[in-house]
Design goal:
2 strands; single chain; 75% helix
C-alpha cells in the first residue's frame, strides 16, 4: 500500500507552469512534425493510434462489442465492432475517428494547463495498454509497443520539467495533426476512385447527410479543439 501511495503521489503531482516561450517552442516542434513530409510519415502513426483508439472507445461506450483493431504500415487502420449496423451508436462510432485525436489533444491541454503533465503521460500509458489488448496484427502490436516504450521512457528517466515539455509537444501535435488528417481525407476523396470506405462516406450511407458534410463536421470539431486547446495552454 505504501508503494501504491508513493506512486499515486507521483502521478498526481503538479509541475510548475511552462513559460509561454517554452509552450510556443513546443508548438513549433509539433508543427515541424506535422508540416515536414519526412517527419509526418512516421509521426502520423501516432495519429492513427489515436484515431482507431477513439473508434474503439466510442464503440464500447455505445454498447457495441469490439472485435479488434488493426494498424498498418501505410498509416491506415481498421477497427471492427459488432452490433446494430445502423443507429446512433454506429454513427457516433464512425464519427469518432477523425475527431478523436483532436478531442484527446483537448483533454491533454486541460490536464497540462492544470499542471498535471506527469498524470497526462500516465493516462496515455493506460490508454495504450487498453488499446494493446485489442490489437490483432503484428504491425499494430509493434506500433503500440514502440509508442508506449517512448512514453514510459520519458516518465522513467526525464525530470518533471522534461516530462512537461514532452507532454506539451505531444498535446500540440494531436491538436495540429487532427485537422491535417481531415484535409488528407478530402484530398483522397477527390481523386479518381475516391475513398468509398472512408468514415465520411460510411456516415453518408448511415445518415441523410452527404460525405462532404461530415468532412466539414470533422474539420469544424478539430479546428475548434485546436483554438480552445491553444487558448487553455497559452493563457
Amino acid at each position: 500500500m505504501e508503494v501504491l501511495g508513493r506512486f499515486w503521489t507521483q502521478v498526481t503531482a503538479t509541475v510548475p507552469d511552462l513559460s509561454t516561450t517554452v509552450l510556443l517552442a513546443a508548438a513549433a516542434a509539433a508543427a515541424l512534425l506535422v508540416l515536414s513530409p519526412a517527419l509526418w510519415r512516421p509521426a502520423r502513426h501516432a495519429v492513427t493510434i489515436a484515431h482507431e483508439g477513439a473508434h474503439g472507445l466510442v464503440a464500447l461506450a455505445a454498447g457495441r462489442r469490439l472485435s479488434g483493431i488493426r494498424l498498418h504500415s501505410d498509416t491506415s487502420g481498421l477497427t471492427v465492432s459488432a452490433g446494430k449496423p445502423t443507429g446512433l451508436g454506429m454513427v457516433l462510432t464512425c464519427a469518432a475517428g477523425y475527431t478523436g485525436p483532436a478531442l484527446f489533444g483537448l483533454g491533454a491541454a486541460a490536464l497540462l494547463a492544470a499542471g498535471h503533465a506527469i498524470g497526462l503521460l500516465w493516462v496515455l500509458l493506460g490508454l495504450l495498454a487498453l488499446l494493446l489488448v485489442q490489437i490483432r496484427n503484428w504491425y499494430g502490436l509493434w506500433s503500440v509497443l514502440v509508442t508506449g516504450a517512448v512514453v514510459f521512457a520519458v516518465t522513467w528517466w526525464l525530470p518533471p520539467e522534461g516530462q512537461a515539455v514532452f507532454a506539451a509537444v505531444a498535446t500540440w501535435f494531436l491538436l495540429l495533426a487532427a485537422p491535417k488528417t481531415v484535409l488528407e481525407l478530402q484530398a483522397k476523396r477527390r481523386r479518381r476512385g475516391g475513398a468509398p470506405d472512408s468514415d465520411a462516406d460510411q456516415l453518408a450511407r448511415l445518415t441523410r447527410f452527404p460525405a462532404l458534410f461530415w468532412v466539414g463536421v470533422f474539420l469544424l470539431v478539430d479546428v475548434g479543439a485546436l483554438v480552445l486547446g491553444a487558448r487553455w495552454l497559452l493563457t
